[in-house]
Amino acid sequence: MKNSTIWAKFAAGLLLLTAGSLLPSQASNIPVQIAQQPNCKSPQTTVDMNMCSSQEFQAADRKLNQVYQQLQSKLKSKQKQRLTVAQRSWLKFRDDSCNYEMGQFEGGTLAGSTYGYCRARVTQERVKDLEGYWKQASL
C-alpha cells in the first residue's frame, strides 16, 4: 500500500517536471490564432457570410422562442394547442421555403448563407406575427 502511494506521488511529480520543462519551449513554436468576428455589416468572404447568417438566425430564433413563451403564458388551453400546431406547421414552412431559396445556389458557395439569411428573415417575420398575437391576447 505504501509503495503504490509513493510510486503514484513519484510519477505525478515526474510528470509535472517533464511538462514544466517542455511547455515553454513548445509554446514558443505554436502560432497563436485568435478567431475574429466577421464584419456582418459588410461580410467579404463566404465564411463570413455563413457566420453572419448563422448569428442573425440565432438571434432571431432566441427572440422567437422568447415571444412564443410569452404568448403561450397568456393563452388558454385550446388556444395553446392551436398555437403549438400552427408553430410546428410554420417551422416546416420556414425550412421548406428556405430550402427552395437555397436551391438556386445548390452546389455553390452561396447556398449556406442564403439558407441562413432566409431562416433569419422568415423567423423575424414570425416574431412580428407572434408579437401581434401577444398584443391581442393582452387586451
Walk me through what this model shows.
The protein has 139 residues and is mainly α. The protein has 2 domains: 1-33; 46-138, Substrate Binding Domain Of Dnak, Chain:A, Domain 2. 80% of the residues lie in helices and 0% in strands. It is built from 4 helices and no strands. Helix 3 (77-103) packs antiparallel against helix 4. The longest helix is centred in the middle third of the chain and has 29 residues, at 46-74. Mean pLDDT is 83; it is low at 14-27.
Give the name of the CATH architecture of the largest domain: Up-down Bundle
Oligomeric state of the chains present here: single chain
Note the run of SSEs as H and E.
HHHH
Specify the overall morphology: elongated
Q: What are the main properties of this structure?
A:
mainly alpha; 4 helices; 139 residues
